[in-house]
Amino acid sequence: METDRPTGRDQNPVNEPETLARHVVDTVESLVTLWFAAAEDVVPQLSARQLFALQTVRRRPELNLTALAEHLEIGLPTASRLCGRLVSAGLLQRTVQPHNRREVRLVVTADGRRFLADITERRSLCLATVFEAMTPGERASLQRGLGAFQQARARTRPQPRGDGQGGGGGTVAGG
After folding, report:
1. What is the DSSP letter of 64?
2. In a 3-state reduction of DSSP, which class is residue 173?
3. pTM of the predicted protein model
4. Any residues with CB less than 8 A from the CB of 25 and at least 6 apart, and which?
5. What is the DSSP string of 72-110?
6. What's the pLDDT score for residue 52?
């Protein structure tokens, strides 16, 4: 059976999707290490899931507790405990809706917004340090490559497996 792929010496294994995928896995692991290291020295310490929940509420303030649980793909009791820890840390506030007393609205507090801004700044500085070690051409290539990746992802819409929110160092009382 013939294929359109070159064989033998004409084939560049670096450009094969499987080879590139393994290289990206290694690179992403390095990026994740940098990503979480930037959040290690902030107080309070949050788990990856807690941080993701807080970021999600900031980006989507219309979410109630049920919608957040669905978004995080966790059970409502787990989401409630997670939010309870964020409330105890002063980063999130729960309010009852006047029109529906059973609906709990989630709001990132001023401290929560400052906390997220601090982590974003730390992460940006860590990335900038790495980018400074690259040549201008390498940075331009990275920018083009990331743009091409985003466009290809939009065309293929791969579905992630599992919840993808694991990892991360210490936590605020678990969770």
Report:
1. B
2. coil
3. 0.71
4. none
5. HT--HHHHHHHHHHHHHTTSEEEEEETTEEEEEEEEE-H
6. 93
